Amino acid sequence: MNLRKLIEQALAEDIGPGDITSEATIRAESVSIAVIIAKQDLVLAGLDVSRAVFHCLDPDIQVSVFAKDGDKIIAGMEIAKLSGGTRALLAGERVALNLLQHLSGIATLTTNYVDKCRGFKAGVLDTRKTIPGMRQLEKYAIRVGGGKNHRFGLFDGVLIKDNHIKAAGGIARAVESVRKSAHHLLKIEVETKTLDEVREALAVKADVIMLDNMPIDVMRDAVKMIDGRALVEASGNVTLDTIRQIAETGVDFISSGSLTHSAPAVDISMKIK
Fold this sequence. Notes:
By secondary structure, the protein is an alpha/beta fold. The chain has 11 helices and 12 strands. It folds into 2 domains: 3-108 and 264-272, Quinolinate phosphoribosyl transferase, N-terminal domain (Aldehyde Oxidoreductase, domain 3); 115-261, Aldolase class I (TIM Barrel), CATH 3.20.20. It has helices spanning 3-15, 20-25, 47-57, 86-116, 135-144, 162-168, 171-181, 195-203, 216-226, 243-248, 258-261; strands at residues 31-38, 42-43, 62-65, 72-73, 78-85, 123-125, 158-160, 188-192, 208-212, 231-235, 253-255, 268-272. The longest helix is centred in the middle third of the chain and has 31 residues, at 86-116.
């Protein structure tokens, strides 16, 4: 991902031919100090990205940071101080905050999920359910929040899902086809919805077996059946209310698309002093 290009596109979308309000009300030579403030408790992610927004507009803007990504921030805390041209500060405010609020929202939600799994071996994973063009940043925020990344895209991991199984004519045929074409270092993951499908995945020696949308009691039986012969990933219907029950079944990983596609943006603001 080209971060500079992403930022330039976001700024062009917001500013267009010019900030008509600031140009009408603020002298070109005006200089100000601004602070970025957390308005709720959160886990910080994306501070360097937001700083890059202001430097894209004016490399002479001075940025002092009082925290780092991964820090748990308390409501009311000043995260950073900026000094520079007033027009540039206001032109970059919305894009910088949008990115910071979104990435910190993902990190905060991820931390909450990870905390629910304390005491169990299950690692919390993301998915490919990301905003187009934002995947690298969103997966970074997952790691900041204590989670782990699943495959980045279709190119770096084998995940045989239900549609692949139907199109190939069954789990055995799908796995056999992958083994003929993929290199030997790639692990093969198979999505299963029933205990019979788990048995099929075991029979063809899948490296990872995904338990998709299984009830807790069925998931528990599946883990016992697999008995360490493959890594086990649980997916589907994962919420803050259910994740601890899922972790208790003994799965190795729990993946959730909501960590990226449904994480609420946290409340952060910028104020001119």
